[in-house]
Amino acid sequence: MRGHYLKKIGLSAASLLVTLIALEIALRLGGYNSLKDWRMRDFALRPSVYPELKYELTPGASGRVWGTDLKINSQGFRGPEPSSNPSTHRVIVLGDSIAFGNNLPLEDTFSFLLQQRLVSQGRGLEILNFGVGGYDTLQEVSLLEIRGLKYHPDLVVVTYCLNDISIASANPESMQRMQPLLYSFLYESRLAQLISSSIETIRTKNWLKHMNEPEVFHREYENQIDPIGDEESELLDLMNQSPKWPSATWYGERDRVGRLRFGFRRLARISKEKGFPVVIMIVPLLVDNGGAYSHRAAHRIVEMEARRAGFDTIDLTDKFMRAGMGNLKTSLGDVIHPNRAGHTLMADSLSAFIDEHLKPKP
């Protein structure tokens, strides 16, 4: 009897081993190699010594990641090395993965397209792209303070995505958890990679869900939230109109709008101290409900807060709607990241704004 059970256990173990080997072979033949992607992300991003940034791009990093060929310059942002001429006039672009240019070659990003246009017009302006995937408005303002002010910008552009009001950033704890695995011999197994990556994806989604819970958000950022008064009826009406849809739904929460107000107020203080104007460029979600756009209330809230801080705004919604939201997606299910056509419209709008508001300097 004992021998029978041992035989059954042996057959089960052998069957399991064959199955695991077959899965390993299938994953390899299918080209699966998340280790390469994770190593590249680990190389491209590093934990920041500045608590408000949490993480930052690694100066000098290069390789294939985030759907594009990445090359980070020695100063820690995407694009060519900035001019060493102290008299160079500059525009600094802040933003998240839209400004950075996920899924796009550098040449298709609006910062690059705008630079080429200004050069063709004989405008001596240098465009510096400080976009970092996952950053929210406060991280962007902190990056400007830490890395950008030394370039003495003549204009700062905030590329605003509707999810900037939420927590959508990379999880530093996840980066720390994955780092030891990336260079482990066992992690060369594609099956081990699949299991680890799947677990980490679930953990990251749960972390983002947790961080965006109203009580957690308030506790985490209570020192970065400006009050929204009961007398602000127009704003409160717009907040009540915010659709119950991911990204836009958070515009109905006072803490979220209050933190946006805090971020804009902080940027306004810096702009006044350093003497540069700010424009908020609002990028719509790439959704089209039968020719209508259902997130205008959220856009209006951002415009009101920008005006309160003394900023100009560019709302790209109408231009994007005329072009067709579906024609501007980098992929079918991506409603966040515009393709080259979308970035061209962004460059067009900024070029017109610069022509009108930023006169050529000698």
Task: Give a brief outline of the structure.
The protein has 362 residues and is an alpha/beta fold. The chain is built from 13 helices and 9 strands. The protein has helices spanning 2-29, 34-44, 97-100, 110-120, 137-148, 172-182, 190-211, 214-221, 233-241, 254-274, 296-309, 317-323, 340-357; strands spanning 45-47, 55-57, 62-65, 68-71, 89-94, 125-129, 155-161, 278-283, 312-315.
Give average pLDDT, whole number: 87
Which stretches are poorly predicted, pLDDT < 50 over at least 5 residues? none
Q: What is the CA–CA distance across the termini?
A: 96 Å
DSSP strand count:
9
Radius of gyration, CA atoms, in whole angstroms: 23 Å
* Biggest sheet details: 5 strands, parallel
Secondary structure class reads: alpha/beta
Strand order of the largest sheet: 6-5-7-8-9
